[in-house]
Amino acid sequence: MKPPRSVGIVVTGLLLAAGLTGCARRPSDSTDLDRRLILAAERGDTAAVRRLLGQGASIEAKDGSDSTVLSLAADHGQGDTVRLLIEKGANAAAANLIGDVALVNAARVGNVGRVRLLLERQPDAKATDKAKNEALLAAAGFAVMSVMSLDVPASGVESGAARKNSRGEAASAPVMDQAEAVRLLIANGASIEARDQDGRTPLIEAAAFGVTNVVNVLLDAGADVQATDSQGATALSSAACVCAQASMNDTLDAVKALLGKGANVNARDTAGATALMVASGWGRTGIVQLLLDNGASIDAKDGAGNTALLIAASGSALPVADVISLLLERKASVNARNKDGDTALILTSKTAVEDVGVVTRLLSGGADVRANNKRGNTALGLAVENGHTNAIRVLKQAMTKSPSRP
After folding, report:
1. Is the separation of the CB atoms in 243 and 279 below 8 Å?
2. This prediction's pTM
3. Alpha-carbon span 268 to 288, nearest angstrom
4. Per residue in 242-270, pLDDT tens?
5. Centroid of chain to Cα 183
6. Degrees (nearest 5) of the Cα angle 389, 392, 396?
7. Which CA distances in Å does 114 have to 31, 60, 99, 139, 208?
């Protein structure tokens, strides 16, 4: 027997409803659209971005590092895609694309794509000369970590390392290259001799941070290797400091580059200090040797009458024993005095940062154990006053071998 007509109508309706439900977009489809939109924006596939937005992808979708689609397109320098996204209502402020500070921030981390994009903005939105100069100083004076942290996935969107394009290829990371960012800024009118609030030029900044590739770019572009900041420090003396820490680059190669371009090895800052004095005070043995090999005056004195040896003997947060040994090997005057009458032995007996080691080196180099300063202090007296037991023992032994003075 045939089913009633009304039953057939109901069954047909149920099938249609089931079919419509099966064709409806599931939440996972939306997530996939966002993922594909992110990849398309990064590679500058503007047509795909337009299509995916039309299919419902979120214009404010974010990747695993919480960067928006617009921000990612900017990071990769995809100008046409950026313009489309802004036209479609993407939040330019959230993507750090508004104002001169956007260029400065991009330059600071060497984001080449974003710097190029911001320099190529429409005439009414282009960076001012002041912003370009600030960006150049930022790019020159910031030590960037070489590994970007992009491995924390956001909800439903794969991270930078895990994202794949339609062909199964990994998504690319933005190009981070401070030297190239510096080249772009110079080519677009940034002043190579721009100054920050302390009078530091891009070359001084780069040298101080040991960003040698930037130092080379600036030198090749004609940066003044003899320029000084408000304290009279040159790029060379700035590179001689204690910049080689775990999170920063060593500065030895920067020193080599500066000397190769004719940096004045005996230039003095406003306190009369030379690069050799700076390097000696911070225990930079390799730089001390390089400066001496290039003609640094070993017994030059600063405004307080201190030589490189006296400064090294005064104590430092870093070991200076090797520097003192090197200076003595190169015939530094072991009994030179500053304006207070202090010798290297007197100074090190007061601080004894490395306890007996430096005292022994100075005595072996001919230091006068009986010398006293203008206050009448001797090395032994200061060692006793400061409770440096091992130094006291060594100094007393030296006193017994030294003829007493009338």
Report:
1. no
2. 0.82
3. 16
4. 654 444 568 899 999 999 999 999 999 99
5. 17
6. 150
7. 26, 18, 13, 13, 25
